[in-house]
Amino acid sequence: MEYCDTSLPGINEVQMYLKSPGGRTPGHVENQVMASINLNIGPGDCTWICIPMMHIAKIEKYLRDNSIFPYASTFWINEEDLKANGIPYQKFVQKKGDLVYVGIGTYHWVQSNGYCANVSWNVAQMDAVQLMASAIIHDHNAEQRYTSIVPLVPMMWNMVMEGESKGTELARIVKKLLVSSLAKCQIELDTATVKKIPVVPMADSIYSIPQVALCSRMTCPRPTLFNLVAVNKNDEAAPITCIDCAHVNSDVTAYQRYSMNDLVEWFDAYH
Ligand SMILES: O=C(O)CCC(=O)C(=O)O
Ligand SMILES: [Fe+2]
Ligand SMILES: [Zn+2]
């Protein structure tokens, strides 16, 4: 998560849950199937039900068969249903002082049995499995028009610029995934040309463009904007869009974070 240039509450910043008896955290996987750490600082206990990623297909089939859409609604799980559908699960009690490590892609449900406080944050495991799982969910989210909060593409570019984990399986996956990002950077520039939207280096922008920005059109698949950010100076409510959503008019300028030459050079030097 150190390669994520922005602060994301509950993800790379600690989040706190204050609970009364019977309080429930509904079923979910973490954003982009990151792992997470959870410490119960008591005094009460929590009961957890977890389904490890190796069984994710079974739980997702169960949810689909029962018209439960985790992106759109909250849901609790019935242990009898898990048993009846042959879905393996882990159930355990987290006492005061116990630390739970929620693995990659693990669906989990948490119930407090007394008054207690939990602190938690996400952990991006620095390995190929985490990255591959996160990348699949990233694309799945885009397909579902669901916003991916963890800015995976900028994080991978930061890894490339810093030479993180060079020579490993992780680096090989980063490089494979960034081929399409590199192509997209060029396609975005071509789109700007076709739409006759001027492209200016981001360093020259008079607007403060956040390090990690999303297109403000809610109808957009809203992948994290990386290299090209369109700004409409007359749209105060939603000035930032992707180049595809940018209107063709003279109020729009596209700001480019890195030159194609720099990106290609960093890309070539990383393996
Ligand atoms: O403490 C809780 O109720 C659940 C927190 C959680 O979802 C997590 O740590 O990933
Ligand atoms: Fe969680
Ligand atoms: Zn857009």
UniProtKB/TrEMBL annotation:
Keyword flag Nucleus: yes
> Which InterPro entries does the annotation name?
Corepressor-Demethylase, JmjC_dom, KDM6_GATAL_sf
* Residue ranges of domain JmjC in the record: 1-140
Which compartment or compartments is the protein found in? Answer: Nucleus
A Gene Ontology term for the protein's cellular component = MLL3/4 complex
Key word Nucleus present in the record?
yes
Positions in coiled-coil regions:
none
UniProt keyword list: Nucleus
Q: Which GO terms describe its biological process?
A: regulation of gene expression
Check the record and name the SMART domains matching this protein.
JmjC (SM00558)
| Gene Ontology molecular function | chromatin DNA binding; histone H3K27me2/H3K27me3 demethylase activity; RNA polymerase II cis-regulatory region sequence-specific DNA binding
Which protein family is it in?
A: Belongs to the UTX family.
Q: Identify this protein by name.
A: JmjC domain-containing protein
Source taxonomy: Eukaryota, Metazoa, Ecdysozoa, Nematoda, Chromadorea
